[in-house]
Amino acid sequence: MKPRRTRSAKLRRRQQVQSSDGNFFEKVTAPGDGDVDRDDELYTIKNLSINGDKRQIEALYVEALYTITHKLGQGDVEESQESLYKYVRNAFQGDAALHTALMEKAKQNKPPSVLLNILLLEAKDLIAKDVNGFSDPFAMMGVVPGTRKENQPMTETAHPEKDEQEAKSPRMLHGKKDGLMHRFGGSFRRKVNKKGKPQDTCTIPAKLIKASSVQKKTLNPKWSERFQFAVEDVHRDQFHIDIWDHDDEEQSVLDAVSSLNQITGGLKGIGRYFKEVTQSARANSDDCTDDFLGCINLKLETIPPEGLEQWFTLQPRSEKSKVSGQVKLKIWLSTKEEGRAGDDDETLDVKEHIELLRQFALYEIRQTGQPVRFWDGVYPERAMLILRQHAIQGDLTDVHLAMCRWLAFHSMIHIDISFSLLYKTLQKIIDKWQPLTLDKEEEDMLTDSFSSFDSYCKRMMIEHREKFTPSKRNSGEEFSSLIKCMRALRESPFYQKYLPYKRPFHAHLESLVVKSAEDYIDRTIEYVQDPDPCKELLKLLNIVNVQCSRFLHYAAVIREVARIDYSQLTLNTFDRLLTEYLTSELMSEKKMDLKSQMRISAAQDPPNDDDLIDLMRIHMAFIELRNYRLANRVRVRDESEWYAIFNKGIKKFLEVAKDKALARVNLSCQLDMPISTSSNDMRHSSSHIDICHIIEQFTVFWERVDINDAGLKIEYTSLLVDVICEIVTVYCQKIISGLEAEGFTQELQTFIPSQLLHLLCAAINNCEQVRRSLNITEKLHMDDMSLAYERDASRLNGNHLWKSEIENRLEQCENFICSEIDRIVGLLTGRLLPQMKKHVFHLAWSPTAQLVEDSLKPLTDMLDIELSAVHKNLLHRNFLRVMSAQVSIVVKLLRECVSENVGMEPSFYHRLFEAWHVLVEFFHAGGKGLSMEALETNPDHMKLVKILSLNQTPTEQLIEKYYKDLLKQQNEVSECKYGILNVRAYYNGNAQTLVLDVIGAKQIIALDSNGLSDPFVVIEIIPKFRYPAVPVVKTKVVSKSLNPIFDETFEFHIPPNPPSTAMLHFTVMDHDYLRSNDFAGEAFLELNDVPGFGATGGSTLRQFNLILIQPVSNTKNVLDVLNSRKEDKDAVEFLRSISTVY
């Protein structure tokens, strides 16, 4: 409970600070009071009923039960009848008594007549029977009755052993052995029993036999002919079809078969008639035969509810038959109910199917408990089984089913069914419909629904801002589907035929967009009526801007579907109506018109806060609307007459805001309270949040306003920056003063109480957070101001340094905060200076045998304890400041140690050098502390490392370094300030002799009063300690010349393979007869560059043009270290040698 109470107290404190000035800043920058989204009226099917009257519902209930009772076909997914009955009862919300009564009624109704529908489409790859390589195929088909006796199976094809019995049957005695009756009967006869007793084959065992047309000379015939057969027992009967090659030119057999439907008297009559026709047709026609091409048998009970459409492979009648190819059939079952009430209505099946679809849909939506528009139109398998059965029994085609689904869903639009679902359903009926596929009554139903839906879509489009607000889930997809529905509907062939319209869809939609914008503005103006004209205008502008911010939600869809620029069209309409509104307001005869009220708000003194806030918000709303115009390429209107008022208001706002902000600073510091993430982790106090909030409010305000005069904008920007910097400076001074009042001063003791340490951490963290809030340069948009200033520079004649002045003002403020933080951190770390000095002394004079890490441990332990005490309490930047302060102290102590102990052995300084590197790793802390880059680029670090490096270096290496530095200086020189020395040299390896020719010099400096010199050159091989026996040589003196020619050769006997530091040293001197010679310059030549040494091959003289230099201060540090080694003979000798005057 304690954390919750603390959070509540902090919230009350923050509200107290903000409300102290009436929430002045928050009101100015608060989001506009845009159009409040109306409640998202999500229809859920709970207690809602749209079922119609009770009698119709019960009739539909009975029809559903009747459909299940007389289920046809065998589906992939079988459901028990009981589960289907249960689903219907749930869908109709029927109680047990009602369900039982209606179930009994459904069972009493006469069962429907079952019909088998055959669509003979085509065949392919038939066998050729004629000499021309083709056949003349036709089909004969019928329904073969199943066995009525128990356990007596049906045959699918005849077998050879049964042909003998067939031949002996009475039926065969009446005709030729090869007659049509023999061959066709072979497929349609019933199977004999196991004892060989023949069946009664005097009758044709087919309920109905029908024949197709003959397709001449083809092996791939195409028929597309439909046949229908009555079925007595769908569970036992089977369908049979034969394909024959026709050779009878007179087609007498086909004529006879086609007349079978005229025969009465049952199966026996059909059989006798067919037998007689066959005999007469075959009489005297021995050379005219119909050849068998194959057959198919199909059990009717295997036909699925949705029917079959597939290729069937033709089967032989017996093993002797030779067949090939396939035939494509579409087969489905349907029913015909007789004696139903209302049977005179031709569309009854369609209407029942629509109602079933709707009833099941309402049930499924009710089950989900979700809003209607979230239903995806998917029915469960049990519902689909019932619907498929009803479609089969009603002989509904695909176009009927698409129409029923559309009409069912269309009837639910008033309960907010999804437009996405409507679009998919609409698209399906549009795709399925073809002329003459529906009866006139059905087309009338579809026409009425399309007309109604078109009107509904128009209404939705006009009200789309309320109906499809972005806050609604899936509203973007729904709006897209609405536009697609409108387009699909109006561009469909059905609509164009039955509901013709004049304007194209593009123009129709464009007019709706304009109409929608006009109606919206009219409604909004009525909604925002207010006695105060400023408040009324502000409400109107805010609502318009909210709608403009939603353009993208609608524009992308309309652009994609209709290529209309919704944003531009709507904004043009908004703009036109707003202009009319403003014109009427400005011409108003009210006591206080709009412009007068705005002028008073900008100039009254003392200012009225609410009026000033309203004026600023109106200005920001105008700017936001202008930005929408620019973004959508709408002409920006001239609003200069308004800007004069707004500019005065902005200046007044800054003056008022400054006073209120400083008052908030005082109150915030008075009410300051700690903020901690845990009981021992206090990082801030609450006041910094208030200050950062004020600065944020200022910058948000500044980003949303605009001053049309460039000079005035620069002036106001400078004023804004001054206000912000003053707020921050005053706050930091108060925070630091409060800390000092608690005892954090120069007299700080070594031990700091934890409470005071927490106050310290909170204070410098607050200052650091506020410092970060000064990063507002980008938000001031000074680059844009610069461009505007340059355009108006000739007119302004103002201060061209305004940008740097503003940036400098921010930088000065930031530097002030940093210096205050550093000062406080310096007090924290400086109190330990005596202890740290003691530890450094211990390090310097600890025994050499003791490891450096061990010698440093007292110091690092003390530093670690100090850092650990503040690590969790400080922002990382401030923690690094503490570490940097410690680094500065340690560096200072080590440098003092070096300066107090000059001339010590190099090992003494080497120990300090190692210790410093250990400390660097300590302060780096594996990447958690100071970065290596920050440490290595620290000037104090660089100086210390340089001093320690030189002092730990042996004398010989220092001497070599001295010469290397001079050689580096020579190589890096960019101008010949002291002249050039020309020499040639090579090394004779056999004689181990270095041959040197000193040719001459050019442009050496004048050192005599006559403007000339008397130059000569001193040559030696250095370093001297490596070549102690090699003499120093001189050239002759060339009097009064700045370009002397010496032309002298010298030889030096030295061993091959010189060290890398070995060089020829040339010193150019000016000879003076009365005083000491003057130094004119020096140059160096590495021996390894001379031909004959090392990798430099050849033995010929090579010329070198050496630039003369004079030593700079870079070598002073080396000389100082060498000079400190009074007891080192090599150092003393070297210093003596370089000071020798030749």
Polypeptide structure, described:
The protein starts with a helix and ends with a helix. Helix 31 (833-844) runs antiparallel to helix 32 (852-871) and helix 31 packs across helix 33 (876-900). The protein is built from 39 helices and 18 strands. The model is unreliable at 149-207 and 261-289 (pLDDT under 50). It has 1142 residues and is α+β, with helices and mostly antiparallel strands. Helices cover 52% and strands 12% of the residues. A hairpin with a 7-residue loop joins strand 16 (1063-1070) and strand 17 (1078-1086). The chain folds into 5 domains: 113-336, Immunoglobulin-like; 511-646, no CATH class; 651-822, Tetracycline Repressor, domain 2 (Orthogonal Bundle); 832-952, Methane Monooxygenase Hydroxylase, Chain G, domain 1; 956-1138, Immunoglobulin-like (Sandwich), CATH 2.60.40.150. A 4-stranded antiparallel beta sheet has the order 4-1-8-7. The protein has a 4-stranded antiparallel beta sheet with strand order 3-2-5-6.
SSE layout and pairing:
Blueprint: H1 2-19, H2 24-29, H3 54-69, H4 81-92, H5 96-108, E1 113-124, E2 137-144, H6 160-168, H7 180-188, E3 209-211, E4 222-231, E5 238-245, H8 252-258, H9 266-282, E6 291-299, E7 308-313, E8 326-336, H10 348-368, H11 381-393, H12 398-410, H13 419-432, H14 440-462, H15 464-467, H16 475-490, H17 493-498, H18 505-527, H19 533-549, H20 551-562, H21 566-586, H22 594-603, H23 609-631, H24 640-670, E9 674-678, E10 681-685, H25 687-704, H26 710-741, H27 754-772, H28 782-791, H29 793-796, H30 802-830, H31 833-844, H32 852-871, H33 876-900, H34 906-924, H35 932-936, H36 939-952, H37 955-972, E11 980-988, E12 993-1002, E13 1015-1022, E14 1033-1034, E15 1045-1053, E16 1063-1070, E17 1078-1086, E18 1102-1107, H38 1116-1124, H39 1129-1138
Antiparallel strand pairs: 1-4, 1-8, 2-3, 2-5, 5-6, 7-8, 9-10, 11-12, 11-18, 12-15, 13-14, 13-16, 16-17
Helix pairs in contact: 3-4, 3-5, 4-10, 4-11, 8-9, 10-11, 10-12, 12-13, 13-16, 14-16, 16-20, 18-21, 19-23, 22-24, 23-24, 24-25, 24-26, 25-26, 25-27, 26-27, 26-30, 27-30, 30-33, 31-32, 31-33, 32-33, 32-34, 33-34, 33-36, 34-36
